[in-house]
Amino acid sequence: MLFHTFTFLAFFTITVALLLIARRHTAQKNVLLIASAIFYMWWNPAFIFLIVFSATIDYVVARKIEQTESPHARRSLLLISLVSNFGLLAFFKYAGFLERNLLYVFRLFGYQPNWTDLHIILPVGISFYTFHTLSYTIDVYKREMPTTRSFRDFALFVMFFPPLVAGPILRAKNFLPQLDTPRRMNFDRATFFLFLRGLVKKALVADGLASFANPIFRHPTLWGSSVIWLATLCFYVQIYCDFSGYSDMAIALARMLGYELTPNFDRPYFAKSPPEFWKRWHISLSSWLRDYLYIPLGGNRNGTLMTVRNLMLTMLIGGLWHGASWNFVLWGGLHGAALVVHRGWRSVTEGWRVRETFAYRLVAMLAMQYFVLLTWIPFRVVDTRDMLYTLRKFIVFDMNFHVADTGLGALSPFATILLLGGFLLIHIASELWGGLDEHLARVPLPVAAAACVVIGALLFILWPPAARPFIYFQF
Amino acid sequence: MPFRSPLGPDFTRLVIVILCIVAGVVMAVAATPNILLHLPTEMSRTTVTVHALQHAPPRLALVVTGDSVTMNGVNARVLGSELKPQREAWNLGSPGQQLAESLFVADMLPRSVRALVVGLLPADLAAHSTTLPESRYLYYRISGYRPSAEALDVARHLPAPALYDLMTEPQWEATLAGRGMIRISGDLTIRSYLRRDLDLERAHSDLYYPAPYRQRISEEALAHAVSLIYAPRRSFTPSPERLALLLRLRDLLARRGQRLVIVVMPEHPRSIALTSPDYYRQLAQYEQQLRNDHHIELLDLHDRLGELDFVDQMHPGGSGSQQITRMIGAALSTS
Q1: What are B85-99's pLDDT values in tens digits?
Q2: Is A427 assigned a catalytic role?
Q3: Which of A11, A464, B274, B314 has the most other CB atoms within 10 Å of its CB?
Q4: Considering only alpha carbons, which residue of chain A is nearest residue B225?
């Protein structure tokens, strides 16, 4: 059930109506839990058992941890939670990957094993809700929060439908306290325009650019540098708009229901360094990895070598979190290496006055964004040969500007460039003067109304013929 | 005491904002057909051809339909001058034209027309679909075409109901699908400024020789285009759906005293080189079957042109179109 479909509109309207009828806080939580279960079961009803199993394990284990004083027993209980959660994640997400790699190794040694392919279906959102539940158990273990008495509340935290399938990743200590007090639904203009912003990003920009980028990346070796650059730029904007669009809609929907989620993006394409990029991109994942992986590994407290190891490990695991494929590991590794190099560069240039100048910051931003563009190639192009070709064409420009008569007509390249340019202009304006949605929420009603007529017309004209699923659903 | 909405204090204003968005959508739905009529799109030629057919001169005796290969390959002015007695002939091909569109053209043909020549590629005889995208049909509707009972009857009796469903759906539904053409029009407008090698104005309005592709592309671009669009073909499997449409089209025209002539248009030698000889053997057998069993007039030109007769990977150039036109003219005069 995608947010930008009529099915979801009907689902959400019915949910809100039932919440209004329920009135009492407890009854409203029941409605939300049932709605969330229905939302999740829309993809595959069987997987509801998996999410309930995961929630039950962590609910019980966390209670036991809280009741236990012995450090050894607490550690063992935490281990049970980690093994069961990561075990499920590993089975559903990484078993096929392991199988493919084993086969490759066997073939290297001339052995042709004859086993049946497992064909495991990836439960939607498993990477997200696994991290929801683990944040709870680990925080209880670290005595940073008390357990919740109500299994219903805990299940609602795990299954709350707006961020369930593609984030933002919830932290128990931020969300569970919100379930203790009655919530007031909030259908104000600011929230609605936040939803609309996400909708426009996803349906108009991301899907519009995907219709150009997808066919190019299907057979990248047919194209020269100029087309590869254009397609990479399209994917650069597409993935941002697709993912941040989902986050905007999820945050807005939660706010309409009376709940606050943490922001997930802060215009990462204006980042001037790798650490800044990760403070602005998929914030809920990067902060999760920082708090529950990088810092427990030792962070930057044990000397340069250990810091490098911790950074690389965190980013490699972060890459692997995205998908069971070596290209995601490579993507994470490149970002890890960038963080390491940046640490070195920062210590060398410490105290340089030039770092404060506008020119330096502009160059730093452009260099960082060139690197981000480059790293989206291994993220997007799975086949190794295609990926190497694409990277070569991207890095070494072949001066082939032969675009016009090369059979691109059906992909509307010029309309794509217009869409890309239009988005980048609005994005730059948003960074300088604030988001369009924030302005629309503040202007007098007649002005907002007139703008909405235009937005409505644009939505109709540019709405894609078929709803594409969000990229991050596959993770 | 003022009313407090349980959905928040700003809810009333939000309702106004949502209604304005809905109003924007409704206005866009209502305006789209008019916008499409005035914006340059790949389908703009349809408005020209439909208008021309509705106001056809009594001397019009021959109409040619087909996609951009036919647009580039048949010079109807020459074809008309070769008719005995000399009459008017039109090339009403358009980019990406589907076989089903020949049904609409046949439906609009004035009685003076003696033959409808349909240019097809071999692959068109094997494709299964007998319908066309909603956005393409929308242009026929907004240009004023209304299917006759006979044309609806043809569509109703096809093996798949898709074409009939399309021809009978309400206009607003077709408008929903046609909205994408506005985006395409943006692309075409920019392309018409950038691609001086294309004669888009001629492709839009010329009723005789609307060939947009005039300039030969470079060897490098040709090699690239061939690798992009051609894959090896091993066997030819005729499509029963297409056959049903052709037979019904033939019957519709026959009832009006008009002929249907199918021309299998030339393929680029590099495409032929990639194709197995079995494919063409099976194609030839099928064509024989169409002529003998189904009494369809068919002219096969698939291998009649050399590489230099094409301007790119598929469109015949000046010399190619001269040869095609001459061969069609000869076939029409002898049959």
Answers
A1: 778 999 999 988 999
A2: no
A3: B314
A4: A406
Nearest to A459 among B25, B190, B220 (CB): B25
- Which ipTM was obtained for this model? 0.74
Contact A17/B at CB under 8 A: no
Amino acid at the residue A415: A
Active-site option among A4, A282, A322, A427: A322
Mean pLDDT, chain A, as a whole number?
89
In the sheet with B297-300, reading across from the earlier edge strand, the strands are B88-91, B60-65, B115-120, B259-264, B297-300
Of A449, A454, A465, the CB nearest to B16: A449
> Which structural domain, as residue segments, surrounds residue B258?
61-134+148-172+207-334
Q: How many domains does chain B have?
A: 1
Q: pTM for this one? A: 0.81
Please give the Cα distance from A167 to A249 (Å, whole number): 10
In order of A425, A426, A427, A430, A436, the CA distances from A433 in angstroms are: 12, 10, 10, 5, 9
A457 with B22: Cβ contact below 8 A: no
Provide the CA B7 distance to its chain's centre, in angstroms: 53
pLDDT at A468 over 70: no
Domain for residue B39, yes or no? Answer: no
CB A384: neighbour CB atoms within 10 A? 12
Residues of chain B with Cβ-Cβ distance to A219 below 8 Å are 228
Give the C-alpha separation, A11 to A6, whole Å: 9
Nearest-CA distance B240 → chain A (Å)? 28
CA-CA distance, A321 to A130, in Å (whole number)? Answer: 11
Q: Please report, for the domain that includes residue B242, its CATH number.
A: 3.40.50.1110
* Whole-number percent of chain B with pLDDT over 70: 95
Task: Report yes or no on B188 lying in a domain.
Answer: no
Q: Is the peptide bond before B210 cis (omega within 30 degrees of 0)?
A: no
A98 CB contacts (<8 Å, ≥6 apart)? none
In this prediction, residue A405 carries a pLDDT of: 53
Mean pLDDT of the A452-458 span: 92
Q: How many other β-carbons are positioned within 10 Å of the β-carbon of residue B118? A: 25
Chain A nearest-CA residue for B10: A188
Q: Do B190 and A418 touch (CB under 8 A)?
A: yes
Query: Quick check: A404 contacting B, CB < 8 Å?
Result: yes
pLDDT of the residue at B122: 95
Name which of A185, A219, A222 is nearest B8 (Cβ-Cβ).
A185
CA-wise closest residue to A57 among A143, A139, A158: A158
A170/A161 Cα distance (integer angstroms): 11
What residue type is assigned to position B282 of the chain? Q
Whether residue B42 lies inside any domain: the answer is: no
Q: Is residue B196 part of a domain?
A: no
3-state secondary structure of B283: helix
